[in-house]
Amino acid sequence: MRILVLAATMPELAWATDHEVLAVGIGPVEAGIATAARLANDPPDAILHVGIAGARRASGLQIGDVVIGTESHYSDLSAAAPTLVTTCQPDLGLLVRVSALLPEARQLPIATTAMVGGSRDCEVEAMEGFAVLRAAAEAGIPCVELRAISNMVEETDRANWDFPAGLQAVADAGRVVVDGL
Description:
Layout: E1 3-7, E2 20-23, H1 28-41, E3 46-55, E4 66-74, E5 87-88, H2 92-101, E6 106-112, E7 124-126, H3 129-139, E8 143-152, H4 163-180
Parallel strand pairs: 1-2, 1-3, 3-8, 4-6, 6-7
Antiparallel strand pairs: 3-7, 4-5, 4-8
Helix pairs in contact: 1-3
């Protein structure tokens, strides 16, 4: 199986030196554009979307905890239109396989928002998941989102976020998944 390991930034992919990788950029617009362009030109068999994320304090999640996304909510859209897609699911078969490889990981919905604390409907939030899952779904490519907690959403001072712990947890979990698939 040809797996594309995808993340917003190269530091989130530093562990994947022996794998096909793509850094899509920060935020849903950049992620959607880069993912769609890559899939149109050279589609893999599956996508493992990895990265760091924030968690709400009330979630019980701690820095370094790993979360497998059961769905992605696009929290930045406030318009209510009947045809507007604001939720995407990962590929069910891939979700089951990744969950079996990471039995300690929590399985939760993950919000996509460009603003820290911008989600109201999820305990975990990141910035690219919805765009990547949506592009993959449109291209018919199985995709799953895997995140490691680097900060609490309520902590807006990025100087207090633990990027090294989040990146290490992403690397550890990512290796297990790619080696197991």
